[in-house]
Write a structure and sequence with these properties.
271 residues; alpha/beta; 2-enoyl-CoA Hydratase, Chain A, domain 1; 6-stranded mixed β-sheet; 4-stranded mixed β-sheet; 50% helix
């Protein structure tokens, strides 16, 4: 039996708000199968609770979410091949992002830490994002031999076209104010707690039906993209995770070394 202290996602309800807190410090809140399952359960609990008017997704520690749990992603069990494992994890992530988007209640991300790769997908799926001064963001998939396949469904609609091209391709880090300027976050602030409290008070004055139907309008086209492109992107993601370059990229990351292509580039250019 899992106790509250064993959980990697804590669920609390107070004042009409359900708070989901990512709390997996050993892997910087990486997206593991366990974290996905607990997040899905929390979202389901919030959806079924008439006393909950809105959901806040937040975190402990200096990292909101480091993206996929690469130690889990790169290790298949004796009964599960790499391709099957990648397909399972891709479906889990797709279902999680869709659950956030489809939730008939506003989801506010309160972020004041590092956001990488799959964590960007979580941010993109939320309706309102409040970012603190310690935030940094990056789409690091290309540096690992991967692509931001599934999370593109929630990230691309938030970004300007030029910003998407730059950050999807380069994997560069950027801060909260740049994230606000390109549309990834709603507001970059010094005190996330005060701003989120104010937002919750404002949402509390809205009717549950009004919130649900208004959210349906803002997410309608995004959900159409899930239906239109989700299967194709899932196939791309699964294929990439099982590729030789991705295996080298993930292995290099876990071993804290440069991947082979980066070394080759440095040698060729005398770096």
């Amino acid at each position: 039996m899992t106790t509250s202290t064993d959980r990697v996602v804590h669920y609390d309800v107070a004042g009409g708000c359900a708070t989901l807190t990512l709390d997996s410090p050993h892997n910087r809140n990486a997206i593991s199968s366990r974290l996905v399952a607990e997040l899905r359960q929390g979202l389901s609990d919030a959806a079924g609770d008439d006393a909950v008017r809105a959901v806040v997704l937040t975190h402990t520690g200096g990292t909101f979410c480091a993206g996929a749990d690469l130690s889990e992603a790169s290790s298949a069990g004796p009964d599960v091949g790499p391709a099957e494992l990648a397909a399972q994890r891709t479906q889990q992530m797709t279902d999680l992002l869709r659950a956030i988007v489809e939730l008939p209640k506003p989801v506010i991300a309160r972020v004041d830490g590092h956001v990488r790769a799959g964590g960007m997908g979580l941010v993109g799926a939320c309706d309102i994002v409040v970012a603190g001064p310690d935030c940094t963001f990056a789409l690091t998939e290309a540096r690992l031999g991967l692509a931001a396949s599934i999370i593109s469904l929630t990230v691309l609609p938030r970004l300007t076209s030029r910003a998407a091209s730059r950050y999807f391709l380069t994997g560069e880090k950027f801060g909260a104010h740049e994230a606000e300027a390109i549309g990834l976050v709603s507001e970059a602030v010094q005190d996330t707690g005060a701003v989120v409290t104010e937002l919750l008070e404002t949402l509390g004055r809205c009717s549950p039906q009004g919130l649900a139907e208004s959210k349906r309008l803002t997410t309608m086209r995004l959900l159409e993209d899930f239906d239109r492109y989700g299967h194709r992107l899932a196939e791309q993601s699964a294929a990439l995770f099982g590729s030789a370059q991705a295996i080298e990229g993930m292995t290099a990351f876990l071993q804290k070394r440069s991947p082979s292509w980066a070394v080759e580039f440095q040698n060729a250019n005398g770096a």
